[in-house]
Amino acid sequence: MQVSPARYSRSIDWLTVLLYLGLVGTGWVCIYASSYSTDVSANQLGGLSFDKLMAFNWFKQLLWIATAIVLVVVLLVVDYKAYDTLAYALYAGMILLLLVTMFVARPIAGSRSWLELGPVRLQPAEFAKFTTALAASRFMSSINLRYQDWRDQLVLAAITLLPPLLIVASNESGQALVFGALLLAYFREGMSPLILLLLAAAGSILLLALLVPKVWLFASFTLILAVVLGLNRRVMRHHLPLAVGVWLVVIGMVVGVDFFYNKVLQPHQRQRIEILINPSADPLGKGWNVTQSKIAIGSGGLLGKGFLQGTQTKFDFVPEQSTDFIFCTVGEEFGWLGSLVILGLYLTLLWRIVYVAERQKSVFGRTYGYCVASVLFFHVTVNVGMTIGLAPVVGIPLPFFSYGGSSLWSFTILLFSLLAIDAYRKQDLVR
What confidence score (pLDDT) does residue 348 get? Predict the structure, then answer.
């Protein structure tokens, strides 16, 4: 059934659109502040040529924003059924593109993750989140899917894990971590919470293995096994092999941490973990970024120093301040109150996406909505955590805020493909 433009316009979730525009606009202001130069006045900017203007991140981001607005129109005009129908094809195409990138891309900072198309550089890993979310949502909306069937779980795991494995092979570990956030969407659709609990337990054990001497861990886990077997005779009689097996797996993880840490992780990745564990170990070396970021945020106080008045920003104390550490510009120039407003915008956007997801009539639309919310939640949490020293520095951009065309385009595609699906929700058949 054909929908009139006026009716379709009324079906678009305009509150989400306004939140998007607010974050993108505020992000551009912060990018301008982070790359602002006192050597070039506002009057002088008008006389600069296009080539010279392209030297400024704020100008290039303005061009990316303009192209993103065009992309928004295209996403909303495309037939909403295409997102479901072409999900697997888009996913396969992205897998091929990741393979090409791994072999063709020029190494940048040790990573082969950027494709250069003339003056434009794009990171396929950013867009892989979109295609993976589509493919996973398409699979989870299958009529014969059984969430507790191990074969279906293996297929879903393969869909989810293949892109991050290729991304890791390109030596870009930060972007690969994002795909773990999709588990939150799968949990909403009926995946056993036991899987999440096991993953959380495994993560906790690995973290303890880095912080606590191995001898203490061996003694602690052996004592726990002895207490469980001593107090619960049923476990002793019927589940002894399982209990011992779990103990062996845990001990194996503790032992394997050293191998993984020293042989698998790259030197810069080990440095990030060391700084997270002990930030004051090398404040002028490995911990410089985080130390300066916390100084910038703390110096902003309640109301901030004012727009373009940040000293940490103005004198380039914080590296990568327009990309990974853009949030410290908010903290320094707009203070605690400004940071609270930005985080409030993100929380409102996440709430709205969940609301949009819950009102979908199709499993595909609902699952995809939760995938979008999960990816955005992970990015915001880790990025802000990086700037205040609560998360390792893994190169995760702040959605709609950080400088960069790939990240802006990928998050725009994630969000507005959901809004396109939502605009036709009343016509969806429940699958």
Answer: 96
Q: Alpha-carbon Rg of the chain, whole angstroms?
A: 24
Rounded distance between C-alpha atoms, residue 385 and residue 401, angstroms: 15
CB 267 within 8 A of CB 300: no
The helix/strand/coil state of 258 is: helix
Which of 6, 28, 22, 15 shows the shortest CA–CA distance to 401?
A: 28
Q: How far apart are CA 398 and CA 293, in angstroms?
A: 15
Among candidate residues 374, 400, 398, the one with its CA nearest the CA of residue 136: 374
Q: What is the dihedral of CA 100, 101, 106, 108, to 10 degrees?
A: -170
Please give the DSSP secondary-structure letter assigned to residue 111. Answer: B
Q: What is the pTM of this model?
A: 0.85
Q: In the structure encoding, which two tokens stand for residue 391, read together?
A: 């998360």
Report strand pairing: 115-117 vs 120-122: antiparallel
Q: Residue 247 corresponds to which tokens in the numbers above?
A: 């103990």
Q: How far, CA to CA in Å, does 132 sit from each of 95, 159, 160, 163, 380? A: 9, 7, 6, 8, 19
DSSP H/E element including 341: helix 327-358
Q: Please give the share of the chain, as a percent, with pLDDT higher than 70.
A: 81
Q: What's the number of CA atoms in the CB half-sphere (13 Å) around residue 360? A: 24
Cβ atoms 190, 147 nearer than 8 A: yes
**DSSP-derived 3-state class of residue 122:** strand
The closest alpha carbon to 29, from 298, 297, 310, belongs to 310
At position 239, the amino acid (one-letter code) is H
Torsion, Cα 301 303 309 311, to 10 degrees, reads 10
8 A C-beta contact, residue 356 and residue 419:
yes
Please list, in sequence order, all residues whose beta carbon lies within 8 angstroms of the beta carbon of residue 388, skipping any fewer than 6 positions away.
293, 294, 297
Q: Distances from the Cα of 389 to the Cαs of 282, 292, 381, in angstroms?
A: 14, 10, 12
Mean pLDDT of 138-162: 82
At residue 67, the pLDDT reads 94
The answer to whether 333 and 310 have CB atoms below 8 angstroms apart is: yes
CB atoms within 10 A of CB 104: 10
Token pair, residue 210, equals: 């880095």
**375 vs 352: CA distance, rounded Å:** 14
Residue type at position 58: W
